[in-house]
């Protein structure tokens, strides 16, 4: 009699465990959806990567935070401005000023290159379809 009760108990436990697993899986899916939802509604998290020619490590800055960044490489100085989700070189002492005349970059894959300084600034956006836009545009 006692043994049978144990079997019944363990059987009910097993059923409960399965329900728990299902509920847990559902919660995980809900959490994942909730985490991804803000990105689908309003694509954020765009950033720029500043790459230096040579061995120096890349630097990453968020595009959602307005700021002034002073870049120095190969003896040249660039003033990079991040403003309202765009980035541009405001001042540069490089000879050709190509970087400065490039203007604002904001779209995924947009790049400012300063050849004399060996600096390139590239936009990385997590926006869905950003690549398709780049191809179409
Ligand atoms: Zn330049």
Write the layout of secondary structure elements.
Blueprint: H1 2-41, E1 47-52, E2 59-62, E3 67-73, E4 76-83, E5 86-92, H2 98-101, E6 111-114, E7 119-124, H3 130-136
Antiparallel strand pairs: 1-2, 1-7, 3-4, 4-5, 6-7
The structure holds zinc ion (ZN).
CATH class call of the largest domain: Mainly Beta
Question: What is the count of DSSP helices, taking H or I runs of 4+ residues?
Answer: 3
Gross morphology: rod-shaped
Calculate the mean pLDDT score and round it: 83
CATH topology of the largest domain: mini-chromosome maintenance (MCM) complex, domain 2
Give the distance, in angstroms, between the N- and C-terminal Cα atoms. 77 Å
Give the name of the CATH superfamily of the largest domain. Answer: N-utilization substance G protein NusG, insert domain
Give the amount of beta strand, in percent: 25-35%
Report the C-alpha radius of gyration, rounded: 26 Å
* Ligands (ions, cofactors included): zinc ion
Q: Which architecture of the largest domain per CATH?
A: Sandwich
Helix proportion = 25-40%
Order of helices and strands: HEEEEEHEEH
- Please tally the β strands and state the result: 7
Q: How many domains in all?
A: 2
């Amino acid at each position: 009699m006692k043994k049978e009760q144990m079997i019944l108990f363990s059987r009910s436990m097993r059923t409960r465990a399965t329900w728990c697993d299902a509920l847990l899986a559902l919660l995980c899916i809900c959490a994942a959806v909730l985490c991804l939802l803000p990105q689908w509604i309003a694509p954020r998290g765009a950033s720029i990567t500043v790459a230096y020619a040579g061995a120096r490590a890349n630097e990453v800055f968020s595009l959602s935070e307005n700021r002034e960044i002073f870049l120095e490489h190969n003896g040249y100085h660039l003033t990079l401005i991040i403003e309202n989700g765009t980035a541009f070189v405001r001042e540069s002492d490089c000879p050709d000023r190509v970087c400065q005349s490039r203007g604002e970059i904001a779209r995924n894959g947009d790049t400012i290159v300063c050849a004399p300084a060996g600096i390139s600034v590239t936009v990385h956006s997590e926006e869905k379809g950003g690549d398709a836009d780049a191809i179409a545009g």
